[in-house]
Each structure stands twice: as structure tokens, then as C-alpha cells.
Amino acid sequence: MATTTGTNIIDRARVILQDGGAVRWPDSELLLWVNDAQREIAFLKPDASSVNDIAKLRANTTKQTMSGIEITSSGGVPNANRILRVVRNIHAVGGASDFADNNSDGAGRAIRLVSREILDSQDPNWHDPSAATGSSTFVSTGGNIKHYVFDEIDPTTFYVYPGVASGQSIYVELIYSAVPAALSAKTDTINIPDTYANTMVDYVCYRALSKDAEFAANAQRSQAHLIAFNNTLGIKSSLDNRTSPNSTVVYTNSADQARIQAGQ
Q1: Which of 22, 85, 178, 260 has a CA-to-CA distance to 122 between 20 and 30 Å?
Q2: How far from 235 is each of 9, 104, 166, 199, 239, CA to CA, in Å?
């Protein structure tokens, strides 16, 4: 959980902007850019605002939209940026909202990502609850979703196989990128990890200096902060890829890489 507040970001930006007295940029204006920074980071790096939660799927359909499913921790619809993963089935324990997802009683079958083309070719009727048969028969409460389909052109929608039968309650563990909630006051805590605080400072300075972009010096400074913002996110993405547990080999530098490739 983040501990950095809007005040922490704004105070650092003011040092760079040389506006400690809030003469040129009032707090209310810089808070706008803090909120914009959160959203921009979540847009460019969706895992920065990832949420792992239990979702109740829509019934009588294979199609699941983030505006239609229910997130059990909040009892409402998530404000989602995009789907990241559908992990596994979760079975209710003791009640509709009581889940032991860290318990063998609550955790169900894994859900695998598959190609839409494969399902369409093998069973063209898998979306139709009245025509689906065999393994594609829509599941009832207590049953398991086996696969899901995701398409990048519609990032807040996924399809489940088999579909959920009418009137049934099926739950899954879902990882999605949320749109960060806006800070209503500068004393509020940011809604992305603390590690992005410095990046947010660059974004706030970029937007603030854009206000005076008609002055060449400020225009240059504004662009410098934007470049720093983009570069930091790019480096963070590269670092995440290199240090991911899913990577088969993590190279620390080019020399290490050459030695490994040479079998040394």
C-alpha cells in the first residue's frame, strides 16, 4: 500500500519549479497534475495499478465486461483500465461473499488463456446457451470455467468457456488494471505504488511548465521533464522484464550476457 501523499509530490515539484510560496501554481492546480500523472502512468504501464480480486461473472453468457461483472471486495463494478489475467475458479465458502481464496476449499480449477480461433473452429456454438453441448455446456454454481479468451482491441472484455448458465453464481480470481481514484485533497495518499513518486514529480513539472510554454526556457524545461517521465517508465518496463520470475535468464549487463552465451 502506498504511503506517498499528494503533498509529498507537490512539495518536491515546487522545489524544482522554484515556487515555494505557491505564487505561480496554486496547490489546487498542481493537484490536478498529480491526478493526471496517476492516470497517465496506469495507461502507459497498466500493472502499476493492478488489482487482484474475486469477481462474480455475468450469467447466461460467455461475454464478461468489466462494466458488467461484480467485484466482491467492494460489492460493485470496477473502474477498470484493462484485463490483465483471469487466474482460477473460486468457490463460495459459507456464503455468497465469503471466500477462502487462500484455502483449498475456496480455490478451484486453473483457467487457461486460449485462442478464440481454436474455440470457434472446434465448437462454433460455444457462445449460444441453447446450442452449447458437451464440454461447452454452460456451467452452474459450483462448476468450473476452463478457458478464457482476450482480445487486445477490446481490453475491458473477456469471454469464458464454458459460459455461465442463467441465474447461476460463478466466481473467478481476476487481475485487472484499475483507473486510479483521484485525490480529492493533497493530503490524500496516491493510488499507485510509491516507487512511481519521482516519475509523478516529473509529470507535474512538465504540466506546470507547459502553462508558460510561450517562454522558450520553460518550454524546454517542460519537454525535458516529459522526456524524463517517459524514459523512467521505459526503463521500469525493461527492468520488470529482466527481473521477472517468468524470465528464463536474467542478464545483469552485456558482459554477463556474452559470457553466458559463450558457455563460460
Answers
A1: 85
A2: 21, 39, 47, 11, 6
- Three cell numbers written together for 127: 457462445
Q: How far, in Å, CA of 201 to CA of 11, rounded?
A: 9
For position 151, what pLDDT does the model report? 92
Read off the pLDDT of residues 201-229 as tens digits, 9 standing for 90 and up. Answer: 999 999 999 987 566 677 889 999 999 99
Q: In DSSP terms, which residues pair with 13 in a beta bridge?
A: none
Question: How far does the chain reach from its first CA to its final CA, in angstroms?
Answer: 42
Can you spell out the DSSP letters for 163-178? EEPTT---EEEEEEEE
Instruction: Decide if 213 contacts 225 (C-beta within 8 A).
Output: no
Mutual orientation of helices 216-243 and 197-210 as an angle, nearest 10°? 160
- How do strand 157-164 and strand 147-150 relate by DSSP bridges? antiparallel
The whole-angstrom separation of Cα 219 and Cα 78 is 38
